[in-house]
Amino acid sequence: MYEPSAGSAVVFGTPRRQACQESRLVLSSVGIPSEIVHHDATWWLVVAAEDRAAATDELAAYRKENAAEAAEVTPRVPQYGGSVIGVVLYVATVTAIAFQTAQWAFGWDWFLAGQMHAGLTRNGQWWRAVTALTLHLDARHLMSNLVFGAIFGFLAGRNLGGGVAWLAILVAGAIGNGLNALAQPAEHVSIGASTAVFAALGLLVSHAMRYWSLAPKHRWRRWSPLIGGTVLFAMTGVGGERTDVLAHVMGFLAGLLIGAAVSRLPARWLGSSRLQSLAGGLAFALLAVAWACALARGQKVRTPRSQAPAWERTVLPALPVVVCWWAGGACVAAGSKAGALEPGRFVAPLVPRLPPGNALSCRLCRPLFAGGQAEPVLQSVPRREPWNQEGLLYPSFPGSRLGTQCLAGSAGPPSTSPITARRSTPARRREMRGRTARQSAGATDGCPGMPRQSL
């Protein structure tokens, strides 16, 4: 025990220097002078003898107040899964679309087709509010949105679940672009995922305000997330010479509104793997439909397509479709691991089934497979083939191994794919010889040996 000098008294002792300094600060706030002394591995707070009673009372009141605040029950914020896979799919999708844009895939100007043009968006081209979220001007623009989007998206996924969070982010970002189109002049153009990034920040702020409002005391703290979010927005969302500040503001406000509604969903809903998988699938379906509409109204910039490299004519046309379906299937697969769905159950509904002999004539799908003068044909493999018992449709690209290689307007007998050749039979060869003889007797429309297709 430390023995102070005459005329002094010890009012507090602790092995932690920080705690002793905190007590000294309390006494200083009420005008009581004190001194810290270190003796025998202990920190002592010493005051004058005449101030001992007042100092003891002040320290006791301070400890009582701290104990009352610690006893308050702070509401526990539940956390959900799917945040990591949501970030991975976000990065993969945005990067894949950036690659398509840089390569002018399918011969389309992706910027012209998907940018948020205020006048065109107001005139009914709603998909531009969605597609503009996936376009970026350069690598720096792309990387900044990937980093901040991954951070905010990960935190939102922990609070709301991966599927619900990214669906809310996409919808809020599209609403933000739509509000920006209404407020800007008709010639205004903007692109970038930053509107969705600040929408994710708005989701986080609304979610935090929701749980802070449930605290039994100090309800003024519920506004602290809004203050912090606004400061963070001011630090990151208003700088830059070419920054569309109004788009960022609209995205942040839309995120606040959507977050206020989503954060009130019951915990059992947010904890459902089925609901999370469904929400993730809806997000990718909305993105796929928006880009299908954009490309259907787009403008080609490279002709003829047949001059493009072979890998670009065969691989690139299928890449966006594969990415979208793979991402949606991965979301459902994540739900199946938790027992909500049986493994593999999500695969069957993703494959379109039409009666044999029919061709896919949807106008929105034309740009996904068309390519200049060499437009591929979607043909149905006959039901008698053992690998096609459901009458599924297979695309036939130039140079593809699926189905018959056929270019619109070509002449001569059809070439047979390696798959057909391995399964050739005498009856099949006789049928092919008879079909060739019938074609030589009269002219045919489109591809020889095939009925007229409508794309």
From TrEMBL:
Biased composition (Polar residues): 413-423
Record carries keyword DNA repair: no
Bilayer topology: Multi-pass membrane protein
Entry superkingdom: Bacteria
Keywords: Hydrolase, Membrane, Protease, Transmembrane, Transmembrane helix
Database matches in Gene3D superfamilies: Rhomboid-like (1.20.1540.10)
GO biological process: proteolysis
Compositionally biased spans, kind Basic residues: 425-436
GO cellular component: membrane
Family annotation (InterPro entries): Peptidase_S54_rhomboid_dom, Rhomboid-like_sf
Domain Peptidase S54 rhomboid, chain residue ranges per copy: 124-264
SUPFAM superfamilies xrefs: Rhomboid-like
Stretches the record annotates as Disordered: 407-455
Entry's transmembrane regions: 84-106, 164-183, 189-208, 220-239, 245-265, 277-297
Compartments where located: Membrane
GO molecular function, one term: serine-type endopeptidase activity
PANTHER family: RHOMBOID-LIKE PROTEIN 11, CHLOROPLASTIC-RELATED (PTHR43066:SF5), RHOMBOID-RELATED PROTEIN (PTHR43066)
Protein name in the entry: Rhomboid family intramembrane serine protease
Species for this entry: Roseiconus nitratireducens
Organism ancestry: Bacteria, Pseudomonadati, Planctomycetota, Planctomycetia, Pirellulales
